[in-house]
């Protein structure tokens, strides 16, 4: 009887295992199908460098054992958060998204139609996307017009606000500068939409493989290592664009961590100088940037997505102020905040902490509303517009 009982139980257990495996297989299949369909057939993950591009990468002193490194030896984030960070992520009570709509410039295209009187104008279009007009040239940085900073169209960080300027209303630009290949800085749909404009893309080493996969002609892709430079225009009226150090990392998938480089950008015109940080932690290399190329009329440093767990590869407000001083900046316009929730802090914490720190250190800030063109050498735009968002939400809740 005992043997009969056990023998009768085995088929039942086998049936349960088959059912469980079937469910898991179905889930994996559905997940694979969703991944395929929502990432444009995996196109958004980009491509790996090979051939002549890979040889150029290998020639870099920062390319070691198949990956790029930070020359200052910064500790890179691990593949997953530690338990304390994960608990904060799941159960933290921070207001990580705005409670109401963000104020924006009403007619950005009309404002941009007027020429900058000083020859230098910057328009913050959200996150790290800026239109920089400098001495007759228009430069676009890290353009992202997509709804999500993600390889997927249905999952991932979603925008707090629409782009203040529709992409088809963007004026013609002379160059697109890319800092690295993370999704909130290198956005495949936006890159594809810019291809018909015949603009040249300037990127750190290896990133051109992604661009060419998405339809950018090879002759319109220029990749630079740190301290290398190119020029737009000729003679005394030219604009020098220098790839300068940053302390970060790269990767778009599970197996390509640091397979491409990352960079900040220095723009040197005949009359004005601008620094764009991309994503970075604090590094002494900024002092060298200041010695070689400063002072800068305006710097655009990242201040959002900061946390002690990744403090070596993101600045946060206090370190952004230090970096601004190191490169010898005159005015700081904060970027990399106010568009996506990419960290654990409140959505407006970067701006609040930055303004408090700037008052203590005597740093001049530019904090225009989204889409408002500002001329750093001739006007102030340091109103705390983000505080009105909370006020409006509280007022709306009142009886």
TrEMBL record:
Metallo-beta-lactamase domain location: 138-337
Matching InterPro entries: Metallo-B-lactamas, RibonucZ/Hydroxyglut_hydro
Coiled-coil region(s): none
Family annotation (SUPFAM superfamilies): Metallo-hydrolase/oxidoreductase
Source taxon at top rank: Bacteria
Transmembrane segments: 16-36
Keywords tagged on the record: Membrane, Transmembrane, Transmembrane helix
GO cellular component: cytoplasm
Pfam families named among the record's database cross-references: Lactamase_B_2
Keyword Transmembrane helix assigned: yes
UniProt entry tagged with the keyword Iron: no
Name the record gives this protein: Metallo-beta-lactamase domain-containing protein
Organism: Myxococcus xanthus
